[in-house]
## 1
Amino acid sequence: MKKLFESLLMANSLAELKITLAILAHAAGSGEGSCAIALWELQSSTCLSPTSVAKGVKEMLARGYITRHLVARNQPAQYQVLWHKLGVGYNGPQKSDKKRRGS
């Protein structure tokens, strides 16, 4: 966990940090390692302008810290934080995590 926080402190901009945290929060809420989230939802959860969100996502994609998968037309993109790129050995929730949560 310490490596995660150290990696987050190395974010090049406030937009990168906020976007990473927003994706992590949405992914944690879904119980998966990734989440479907629209750019307007990132704007809403980070309080960043549309330009800042677009720039932050572009920077994070270029650095390889997140991935974006287009699921279907007119659907939000699926984003995933690449933990290993952040220096963190985490592969998303494990089966034992789901059992503890009562799933």
## 2
Amino acid sequence: MNRMNLRTFTWTAMTCTAKFWLDPVQLAANFGFRAHELRTIQSIVIESKVRFLEAWDGFFGDNGR
């Protein structure tokens, strides 16, 4: 994984948090989610990856990479 690309997505629910690298989609950290919940979240992140990356770049521009 290219660590120069720092774009991530964080999913939080109640007291649980999961952080995913966006390119490529990969779990970076998990605090409290069960395996089946992580699979569901990862599927959502994969399906929404392009939208998340566009939003990230729109907010941070090239400096956010």
## 3
Amino acid sequence: MEPLAIQRMVLPDLNVMRFESKRILNPGKPKAFYTAEDAYGDPWGEKFFDIEGVSGLIVVNTFCDVQKADSISWEKLSPDVESAMRELWG
């Protein structure tokens, strides 16, 4: 299988970034996690909330919208998010 290609997209809220793939990540209903407690028990949610600086996650079809804390930059956070996506979805 070809490695997961990921494209980043800046959204109007500068603390949220879209990480999009051409591959289906979530074929079901959207998954949303707004706190680490929301993510507890879900492999996707736990994987992302284990990343320092992640404060929210929505997984829909071919993309993840990730919310970050003000205290961290996208330059620092993005590689960890992409690594988590590749671990979860290829």
## 4
Amino acid sequence: MFNKEVRNAARMFAGTVLSVVGVVGLVLPLIPGIPFLIAAAACFNAIES
């Protein structure tokens, strides 16, 4: 399968995108921000060292 570096890079990318969408969601009333920030925290938590 994928090695650890590729999985960590994908999780970092997904966490960054979800963080940006979450912050935008906190400012704009169209989308909720909290679920995206929780998902981003889960992505960042799953990064292996």
